Amino acid sequence: MNDTTSSPDVADHLHRVAEDFERLGDQISRSPQPDAFGAVTKLAVERVPAARAASITVVKHDRFVTAASTDDVALRADRIQYDLGSGPCIDAIVEQTIYQPKDLGTDDRWPDYGRRVVAELGLHSMLSYRMNLESTGVIAGMNLYADEVDAFNERDLAEGLLLTTHAAQAVTAAHLREHANNLERALSSNRDIGTAVGVLMGQHKLTRDQAFDLLRIASQNTNRKLHDVALDVIDTGAVDVTPHGRS
Q1: How far apart are CA 88 and CA 107, in angstroms?
Q2: Does the structure show a pLDDT above 50 at 68?
Q3: What angle do CA 240, 241, 244 make, to 5 degrees?
Q4: Is the pLDDT of residue 176 over 50?
Q5: Any idea what the Cα angle at residue 147 is, between residues 143 and 151, rounded to 5°?
Q6: Mean pLDDT throughout 141-170?
């Protein structure tokens, strides 16, 4: 016998999550911030009232760096982790999990980090999430910082997870759009180069390799991109291989 007593509650919960996710996406798309990371950190402190500051950490060239932060407090708190090589965000990223230290001053997992952020910045609790961005080749995590001990409740935890999920999707979508645009530009460039090669072959009775070599020589001697030289050949039927800028 199936238990259907909780179905309405589950359906209502999923409906609210879907609405929140849609609303969050709309807020990010309308944000004046130039990138998804910046938009999400700003939105995090708005949607999680207990958060004093927020930041997003990424791994670049095997180093942890802050890609976006709401203020200098978050940036300094991040840098302490990087200096120590230890902290909730670093571990959340490396271990692909979520950390919620409720009292940084007494948490024995990061004693050095906790002691410093309490003494130097007055921060006492955190939420740290790993962001799922593997398809983009980016490794990242989000941090929420609070002044109070045990500042974040279960709702805040869920809200942060929603934010990181949507941020990951927004960044992935932007990455895929840029990749598609790059491919389109490459295909267009290759078509134009191929057309220019055909023009030179027809006008000067050259082989394909000879025509392409002329384009390359012209590109090198005039210090112009191969694609730009090809466009000139298509427009004029001529190619200039004279070295420029030399007496």
Answers
A1: 11
A2: yes
A3: 90
A4: yes
A5: 75
A6: 89
pLDDT at residue 157 greater than cutoff 80:
yes
Query: Under the phi-then-psi rule, with left for phi > 0, alpha for psi from -120 to 50, and beta for the rest, what region is 96?
Result: left
pLDDT band at 118 (very low <50, low <70, confident <90, very high): very high
Domain annotation for the chain: domains and CATH numbers: 11-179 (3.30.450.40), 185-236 (1.10.10.10)
Integer Cα distance of 195 and 233 in angstroms: 9
Task: Give the dihedral sign, CA 87/93/94/97.
Answer: positive
**Cα atoms in the 13 Å half-sphere on the side-chain side of 2:** 3
Tell me 164's DSSP state: H
Q: How confident is the model at residue 131 (pLDDT cuts 50, 70, 90)?
A: confident
pTM of the model: 0.65
- The strand pairing partners of 15, in sequence order, are none
Which structure tokens are listed for 7?
Answer: 């179905």
CB 226 within 8 A of CB 215: yes
Nearest by Cα to 142 from 78, 86, 203: 78
- Show the tokens assigned to 207: 């082989």
Give the pLDDT score at 236.
86
CA distance 242 to 117: 64
Place of tokens 């420029």: 244
Question: CA separation (Å) from 234 to 6, 21, 157, 185, 195?
Answer: 69, 49, 59, 17, 7
What does DSSP assign to residue 129? E
